[in-house]
Amino acid sequence: MSKPDIITLGCRLNIAESESIRQSLINKESSQDLIVINSCAVTSRAVAQTRQTIRRARRERPDARIVVTGCAAQIDPEIFAKMPEVSRVIGNIEKHQIQSFAFSDQQSDEDRVQVADINSLKETAPHLITAFSEHSRAFLEIQNGCDHNCSFCIIPQGRGRNRSASREEIIRCAERLVEAGHQELVLTGVDLTSYGDDLSEQDTLAHLIDHLLTQIKALKRIRLSSLDPNGVDDYLFELITGDERIMPHVHLSLQAGDDLILKRMRRRHTRAQSVELVSRLKAKRPQIVIGADLIAGFPTEDEQMAKNSLQLIEDCDIVFGHIFPYSPRQGTPAARMPQVHTAFIKERAGKLREAAAKQQQLWLQSLIGSHQSVLLEGDGYRGHTPQFAPIRLAEPVTEGGIVEIAVTSADKDGLIGKKL
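Now predict its structure.
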């Protein structure tokens, strides 16, 4: 039996869904030589990267069937269907239906593209992964879709409207993942803080996390994927800052540090609110580190606006900067706005990356001499601290799980340490 090859592009939600696809295909006996490419559509560059990945996969495995799925396939299936390398294009609904990956000698042209209207999907379910071959942590999807329609974002067209899995389903999935040996669960979604908006007043992200911590005593760690700063209510704030089982790593979807740009992006927060939230988080739990998404060169951005975003890295002490050079996505309002010249976008993205890297190095250096509880991964030579600092060891640790490590040094790739 040939094992499927799953290639994942994009976000943590795609990682979780790719693992779900992998398990489904492994559990279904098949002799097919299959490559599944789970695509991203967050930028035009992401779509181009998907096409490059398809061509490379065909060169490396000329006899394999290539199935393209994910957000890029959902939004514009025809551009992939026209590629001679592609055997089938399936949407974000169909990728959770095992029959979508089945081939026969009588495949018709209609079978080649299987993409339903994503807005026809009214609910979601947490995708349970029974084992992670390369990850000590498990990714658990609790929510999908987004209702906010930011002016630069195409993702609602790929993921549909906000849909939350039920608390009961999520807890059942989490219990099984913990029983399987996963000591850290990463809660993922497209718009995590909107979890429960389609359910009841007692179904919010904070309520869910509280129930997970209360009902699953064996759960060692919860890590949260990207949070909308506007969605961090008092209940969630108190959990993040007050419970040691929630990892002190908060990744915020800030996008910009200039109020006019934020308004044109249709974001729901201001610069001052971002700074104030980070200040409160760090005052209540000083070991919290901040990550953030930032877009360089959004339409109409001038030099002063760019400087405001650059200054945000210092003002919010951002040590994990995910920097996206703006690229227009057809079908979004921002694509119709006056565009910034590509050279300026590249320059501003470079400055943002440089500032974030400098901030990260200062932080990593400050950890030298500390003791860290590290979740080991893979071969026992590497792992991550609670604050998600990457760390590697001079000698492998064989027992696995969470191990106490003394940090001895740091370099551009992260921390270096030894087992206590």
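The first strand starts at residue 5 and ends at 8.
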